[in-house]
Write a structure and sequence with these properties.
0% of the residues lie in helices and 36% in strands. It is mostly beta strands. The mean pLDDT is 92.
């Protein structure tokens, strides 16, 4: 498990909305994937919260 700090930058290549959350997929240096939650979504898949800043 990793911890992100304020100001950290995360690059991701895909996202998915399921289980009530918006998940980001991140390619790691070893070619494997890591996943992190970036907010919540409702039962229709609409984002209802955002955790972090997106550019």
């Amino acid at each position: 498990m990793a911890t992100l700090n304020p100001g950290d930058v995360v690059k991701y290549d895909a996202f998915s909305k399921h289980d009530g959350y918006v998940w980001l997929r991140q390619v790691r240096d070893n070619g494997q994937f890591g996943y992190l939650v970036s907010g919540e979504c409702d039962s229709n898949g609409k984002r209802i919260s955002t955790w972090g800043k997106f550019e």
